[in-house]
Amino acid sequence: MTAIVLNVNRRAVEVQAEPRTSLADFVRDKLDLTGTHLGCEHGVCGACTVLLDGVPARSCITYAVACEGADVTTIEGLDEDEVMAELRAAFTREHALQCGYCTPGMLVSARDLVLRLPDADERRIRVGLSGNLCRCTGYVGIVRAVQSVIAARRGRNIGPQADGGRIHLGPAGSGRAMSGHDDQPLPTAGLELAAASDSVAPDVIPDFTPANVLDQSFTLPYMPAKVFAMFADIKGIAACLPGVSLTAPPSPERVEGAIRVRLGPIVAAFEGAARVERDPAALTGRIIGIGTDRRSHSATQGDIRYRLVPLDGGEATAVELSIGYTLTGMLAQIGRPGLVRDLAKRLVADFAGNLDRQMSGAPPREVAPAELSGLSIISDVLRARVARILGRVFAGRGGAE
Amino acid sequence: MKPVPFSYERPRDLNSALSMLAASRGSAKIIAGGQSLGPMLNLRLVQPELVVDISGLAELKRAEIRGGELVLGALVTHADIEDGRTADVTRGAMPGVAANIAYRAVRNRGTIGGSLSHADPAADWISALAALGARVTLRSLAGVRSMAIEAFVVGALESALDAGEIVEAVHVPARATSAHWGYAKSCRKTGEFAHAIGALLVDPAAAAARVVIGAIDTAPIVVTDAAELFGGRIAADFKQRFDARAADALLVKAGIDDAAQRHIHVSVLKRAVFEAAA
Questions:
Q1: Does the global pTM surpass 0.90?
Q2: Lowest CB count within 10 Å: A61, A388, B67, B74, which one?
Q3: Are A288 and A272 contacting, i.e. CB atoms less than 8 angstroms apart?
Q4: Which residue of chain A is at minimal alpha-carbon distance from B87?
Q5: Size of interface A-B (CB pairs under 8 A)
């Protein structure tokens, strides 16, 4: 085993792995970034293509140990990427995938073409994608999607960059390591370590575009100004939220803490930090947070916005919540929006009840971590299964026509 | 599809890499971009005890024009050449070849020195560089030696490298302004290894031509004085004078018994001739 230090999706990572571990196995098995797919494992099919120091590389025939110090970007790290957002929309529009197995690698290669090709020439795109095999689509939709993004960007006067922005000579990902083998880990001062560090609270909490947004509301029998003031009391608010605990004294702009959530048999404890914004004039506020659950190797980002609306001539308040979130990692495999919506509904109901009690002077009820009832999960799974079966039937018909 | 376990060393400079190689007595394998060795390791076709990773060595990443020729360090990648991050003395010939090697994701890591060391007959550089008249320098603890590319490639996956020796640099002579370049290959699928490669550098002004018939499952056929393929004389009308039967005879002599295979090789060479004349 060798300690391998590199940056994955802008996070410094230090993980033990054998020298024979491919970069693909490293991100999949050690970091649970399973969006990188393995097909042929000898450099032919392209499913494992990732960005290495910003340019595409085969992660199945690149060993993680050889990427010491390099910047690795997997499909998960391209959620916020502007070109990728355009490509995702185009892939959806042009039906550029069916089973999705080739799609992460296909998107990484497509992004490279969008950046480098001068125009949307079909032949050049087809040649450029020849290292990414797709067994479903016949490539027609994929080529069309890439063409449309290139044409749109060139139409907006965004020029090509023939070299993909690379300036160094030599293999992508090389040359960032210190010499020696396993006894000289890179200095990582100032970097957040995903696996090795004890602190999971990030210093900077960036904005993001949530993958899912759900709206909830409840009413409180108090004036909006009083509710707004209550919302400034972070400790008080945290005490009303089932499963929430603070890990550091909060400031008006920042809070560090953890939330324990149960989803049927799964217990997740997301630890992280949040940034708090408030607008007293509009009686609105926003909490943007990042948390990770070490046990399930999952991460979540949340963006909760609230708006206080006077009711009954200003005597009561409607609290309108918009809860946006993105879930990645193992939990994302089962954390379907339906399940999370159910959980959020229960959380918000408990929160509203506790808040009411607290504002009336009564202590909050002792609450267990929010959880979904077994029945609710079963019925949700059943519903999804029925929907899938129906979808298959209809898709089958559509395909036959 | 996982390699057998191996030890891994990342030497700090070329000399320590050579020392490791010498000390290993043949049980070590040099890795650069790993685009040829990686698949072989994964398929367990190669099972070295030690892998020596030279990909970080700055001294092998140089590219400079020295004495009228281009000197490319072994770690220069195909994409470096394709994108023009290195100088070009071949008036587009080398960038053109580089741009069509495998796929971009492979070109971003695959190196010119690694490709030569691997000596796969179907790879592009061993044919293209032979046609361009390039030489290669090899270094070991004992010193440096230099040889023509056609002498370096001995057979399928067989090079002139001794144990303890690595490719240090490639020296490419400048292409004369009067010299025409043609390069063609036939791949069953775009980006896959070629089934036939034709390459030629024709200079009617100097009445000289170098012709390579590559991807023949062994070291390529390199004709340094190719007048015999053009009716005995290299002139401006070399396209009309190209003699397909003479090319076929070369293939027969090289032991290619299958007439269909010879036909493919001759046709691909003819395409290269046409490209050079265009």
A1: no
A2: B67
A3: no
A4: A169
A5: 156
First to last CA, chain B: 46
CATH no. for A198-374: 3.30.530.20
The number of beta carbons lying within 10 Å of the beta carbon of residue A313 is 6
End-to-end Cα distance, chain A: 55
User: Amino acid identity of B239?
Assistant: K
Alpha carbon of A306: minimum distance to chain B alpha carbons (Å): 46
For B81-97, the pLDDT digits (tens) are 999 999 999 999 999 99
Residue A344 sits at the chain B interface (C-beta within 8 Å): no
Amino acid A109 reads S
Sequence ranges of the domains in chain A: 2-185, 198-374
Burial A159-195 (b: 16+ CB within 10 A, else e): ebeebbebeebbbbbbbbbeeebbeeebeeeeebbbe
In Å, how far is B123's CA from the nearest CA of chain A? 15
Domains, chain B: 7-53 (3.30.43.10), 58-173 (3.30.465.10), 181-277 (3.30.390.50)
pLDDT tens column, A103-130: 999 999 999 999 999 999 999 999 999 9
- DSSP class of residue A191? S
A19, A43, A181 member nearest B39 (Cβ): A43
CA dihedral sign of residues A61, A65, A71, A73:
positive
Is A128 within 8 Å of B55 when comparing Cβ atoms? no
A2-185: in CATH 3.10.20.30? yes
Six-digit token string for A55: 């340019």
Each residue of B138-155: pLDDT tens digit?
Answer: 999 999 999 999 999 998
The beta-carbon neighbor of B102 closest among A52, A131, A169 is A131
Residue of B nearest to A130 (CA): B190
Token pair recorded at residue A56: 């595409």
Q: Which of B11, B85, B191 minimises the CB distance to A130?
A: B191
Tell me which residue in A19, A130, A174 faces B189 most closely, judged by beta carbons: A130
Provide the 10 A C-beta neighbour count for residue A392: 10
Interface pTM (ipTM) of the complex?
Answer: 0.95
